[in-house]
Amino acid sequence: MNAQILSWNVQGIRDPTKQAVISDVLNRWNVNMVILQETKIPVINSTISRNLWNRAGVELAYQPSIGASGGLCIMWRGEEFELLDRHDDVYSLAFLLKSRRTDTIQSAKPRPVKGNPGYVLWKKLQWLKQKLKTWNWETFGSTNAKMGGLLEEIKEINFKEERNCATMEESKKKVDLKLEYKRWARLEEIRLRQKNKDKWVEEGDNNTKYFHKIVNHRRKSNYISC
């Protein structure tokens, strides 16, 4: 899993305006985990938690501040990580987290393969490649289809807003839909960039003979006879 972890010295989270800024960054950057330092608050209740990261399935743990100094808060997506153990004292907070997605791939083991080490490695890589393809499709599916569905929902809410018949919940939902659309658009951009890179590598390999000819031609041109 390509986890995105944000560490941030926030210098206090009491101010609702600061909480809104943090929430906006977490949603825009689509992080999997955030570590907030110097929270300067003794208790982080459910209201503050929702203000910081209003997303379903978010889990958190915090170390209270000492007066108006210190304080630490760690929040993560429950569907991405599982909390195995924790250790905390007055000045520190340590966590042992396990990726749930990694277990999905590791839960199924390849069949034993016999042969020389090179052949065994090749077969295992083949198996892993297939598992990753399956996981990618089950997790992300068709990017274009998801983006198209999000656009249709956004257009439907826009249509209602133009006729002043959209509810507050639908207007809030439109904001979330736009953020989700941007996330999928970014994933599609990364996929196309990677695909283009693969194509360039393939074309480069196919043109190796051509590059050798150019090098040999330059070598002959630069040759100085004695």
TrEMBL record:
Gene3D superfamilies: Endonuclease/exonuclease/phosphatase (3.60.10.10). This is Endonuclease/exonuclease/phosphatase domain-containing protein.
